[in-house]
Request: fold
Amino acid sequence: MDNVLVLVRHGQSEWNRRNLFTGWRDPDLTEQGVAEAERAGQLLLAQGIRFDIGFTSVLLRAKRTLSLILDELGQQDLPTVADPALNERDYGELSGLNKDEARAKWGDDKVLMWRRSYDIPPPGGESLKDTAARVLPFYKTRIWPAVKGGKNVIVTAHGNSIRALIMYLEELSAQQIIEREVATGAPMVYRLTMHGHVEDRRDLVV
Reply:
């Protein structure tokens, strides 16, 4: 399969398992997360997809997910670019807390507002709108030119940086994107027109 853009949220991390706000903190994958990344590679291999370039955030969980996927594809030498523009949303003062701790400190309503609003950031952190403001320029200047040039591109990143890309690609509203769940280790395969619009999208699941 040629000329595709594949988005993959990293496999489960240690802090995902512990239900902690992670943001820019840098935990590794769990055993389950490793298995999810390997399975993502196997699903892509079954589709016959070979990549020309990979992009990832600078955080370990995303970089390791890409590495494990490429191991399954036999493409360990693929040219890759790691950039903080693709990092997870910065949760600021929420980072390292679980949801119960956060609610005890700030109250249910504020924590829900920070988690589920598009443009209201937590203290010291980023909103999804802020995250998109760094993700999308990187997409337009680095990722999209590769896709437009006929290359197969894989991006391994995070729930919210991938949401920013999905919102742009699928032309979703702020309300639609905050309701969109992004599963760990589940490849989303996009075929785009020459103008960058989505021609086809398939989710690869077990």
User: Anything to note?
Assistant: The two ends are 19 Å apart (CA to CA). Residues 13 and 29 are 4 Å apart (CA to CA).
